[in-house]
Amino acid sequence: MEKVNLPILKKKAKKIAEQLGVELYLVGGVVRDWLLKGGEEEFKDVDLVVSSSRKHFAILLAEELNIPLEDMEFWDEYFVVKIGKLIDVASFRREYYPEPSVLPKVSEAETIVDDLKRRDFTINAMAYRLWPEPEELIDPFGGREDLKKRLIRFLKRDSFVEDPTRIYRAVRYKERFEFEFEEETFNRILLDKNYISRLTPARIRSEFERIADEDKLINCLEFIYEYNLVPNEVVHFLKKPNRDLIENFLRSRKEFNNEAFLITILSMILDSRLDQDDIELLAKRFAFTKKEMRVLEEIEVLKELALIDNLKEAYKLYIILSPMGKKISRLFTDMVEVIEERVEQVKLSGNDIINIAAKKGVRLLGKEVGVLKKRLIAEVVSSENGLSEMKQRELVEKWVSCKN
User: Fold this and answer.
1) 147-167 burial by CB neighbour count: b if 16+ within 10 A, else e?
2) Are 259 and 324 in contact (CB under 8 A)?
C-alpha cells in the first residue's frame, strides 16, 4: 500500500468507531492537504485520533485493511499505534517540554482541542470529525483562514524555543506550498534560530533528510543559507547552495536517493575549503556515517587538486574513490567529465599491454597489468595534448623494460 485511499479508510474507520463508541478524527497534514487540494482522495500518510481504546481500534482497523499484526508498532510512550508505514492511530495527547530543544514529555489529554494545542502551526492544528456524525471541521486556531491567506503562523510565541525543528518544518511548508510567513512567526524564527544549536545531531540530520525529499529543495536551502539556519558552530562553512549540483541531483533523484542527505549538505559547503578538523566538526553536528565522512574527505582532496589543475593526481584520486564518492563526484565537478573524455583517448587494452610485455620477454600478472593500465591512463589524462597510440606503446615498453 503506497498511498491511503481516504474514502475507503473513512468508511472502515467510522464503522469501527461506532462499534467501540469512540470519537474519531482525521488530524494534521491530511486535513490541511485535503482542504488545499479540493478533496483529494489518496494520501501518503494519514493520522487518526480516537478518544479512547486506540490499541483495540488500531487492531480492528488493521484487520479491515488486511495489514498483518507484525506490520504494526505500538509506541506506548507516545500513545500511538502505527499501522504499516502510512497510518497512525493516536489518543488525545498533550505535551510538556521540560527544557528548550529537547523531546517533549507526552501524556493523554481529554479533548480534541487539547490535542490540537500541541501542534506546530495553525494550518496543521485542524481536525475533521468522522464520528460521531455529522462530520465537521474542528478549527480552533483559524487554520482554514490561514490556508486561504497562504500564511504559516505558529500557535504560540515559544514554539521554536520548545522545538527548533519546527523552523525547518516551516521552511519546508513555505517552499512546498508557496506560502509566506505571518510577520510575528518570521520574526520569532530569526530571534530563536540559535536554539538550533541545542538540537542533537540525530535530530538535525533527520530534518535535513526531510528537506532533501522536497521537490523545491534548492528554495529550502537558499532560505536556510540566507538566514543562517544551521548550528552556530558550522555557520561559517555555509555557502550559497550549489545550484548545478542540486539540479543535477533532482534530475537523477532515483539514482541518488540513498545519497540525498549527503548531497544536500555538500551543496552548502562545496565552495568552502575544509581541513580535517572542519570535516570532523561537520560530521559530528550532522551525524555523518563513517562512509559519508570518508566521501567528504575524498571530495575535499579532489577540490584541492582541481584548484592546482593537477589532472594526473586528480585522476589518481578519482580511480580510488569509494563507489559512493565516485558516484557523487559526477554530480558536482566538471573535472570528472574532462578526465573521462581524456580516458577515451587511451588506445591500449590490457591484452595489448600483455603482448607488449611478452615481446620484451616479461610475463605480467593480472594485478601488474591493472597497475600499468592505470598508470597509462594517468599519463594520457595529464598530458597537455594527449598521447598518440605510438607514444602510449613507447611508454609501456619503457615501463616493462624496467622490470628486466
Assistant:
1) beeebbbbbeeebbbbbbbbb
2) yes
Write down the pTM of the prediction. Answer: 0.81
How many CA atoms are closer than 13 Å to the CA of 69, on its beta-carbon side? 4
Grid cell digits, residue 394: 613507447
Q: What is the pLDDT of residues 288-346, one digit of tens each?
A: 999 899 888 877 776 665 554 555 565 555 555 556 666 776 676 666 666 677 778 88
Residue 85 CB neighbours (<10 A): 13
Q: Dihedral of the CA atoms 131, 133, 135, 140 (nearest 10)?
A: -70
Exposed e or buried b for every residue in 120-142, given b needs 16+ CB within 10 A? Answer: bbbbbbbbbbbbeeeeeebbebb
Q: What are phi and psi of 368, to 5 degrees?
A: -65, -35
Neighbouring C-alpha atoms within 13 Å toward the C-beta of 129: 16
Element containing residue 80 per DSSP (H, E): strand 80-83
Which of 57, 90, 53, 85 lies closest to 72 in space, CA to CA? 85
Residue 84 in 3-state DSSP? coil
Identify the DSSP state of 166.
H
Q: Report yes or no: 57 and 29 within 8 Å, Cβ to Cβ.
A: no
